[in-house]
């Protein structure tokens, strides 16, 4: 998976996690939703780990271990990754 595909997968799993979390707020005893949420959370954690290992940190809020503190500012910013054709 390239950087763009991996970032898109992270966004998809983040969306699913939020939606499942909202669902569980209303139906906290739903076993299937709990299982789905745990699976999505596990996959999301794996994806974020792999992304940060290969491409650098996603955030600068202390949630990721970083060997090079300058990596956050040395990689392109999100708006620098988009070309006009994709907008």
UniProtKB/TrEMBL annotation:
<dbReference type="InterPro" id="IPR024207">
    <property type="entry name" value="CotJB_dom"/>
</dbReference>
<dbReference type="InterPro" id="IPR016571">
    <property type="entry name" value="Spore_coat_assembly_CotJB"/>
</dbReference>
<protein>
    <submittedName>
        <fullName>Spore coat protein CotJB</fullName>
    </submittedName>
</protein>
<keyword id="KW-0946">Virion</keyword>
<feature type="domain" description="Protein CotJB">
    <location>
        <begin position="5"/>
        <end position="80"/>
    </location>
</feature>
<keyword id="KW-0167">Capsid protein</keyword>
<dbReference type="Pfam" id="PF12652">
    <property type="entry name" value="CotJB"/>
</dbReference>
């Amino acid at each position: 998976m390239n950087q763009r595909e991996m970032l898109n997968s992270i966004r998809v799993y983040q969306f699913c996690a939020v939606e499942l979390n909202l669902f569980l707020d209303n139906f906290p005893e739903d076993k299937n939703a709990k299982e789905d949420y745990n699976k999505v959370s596990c996959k999301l954690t794996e994806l974020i780990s792999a992304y940060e290992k290969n491409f650098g940190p996603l955030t600068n809020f202390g949630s990721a271990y970083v060997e090079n503190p300058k990596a956050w500012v040395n990689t392109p910013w999100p708006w620098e990754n988009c070309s006009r054709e994709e907008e």
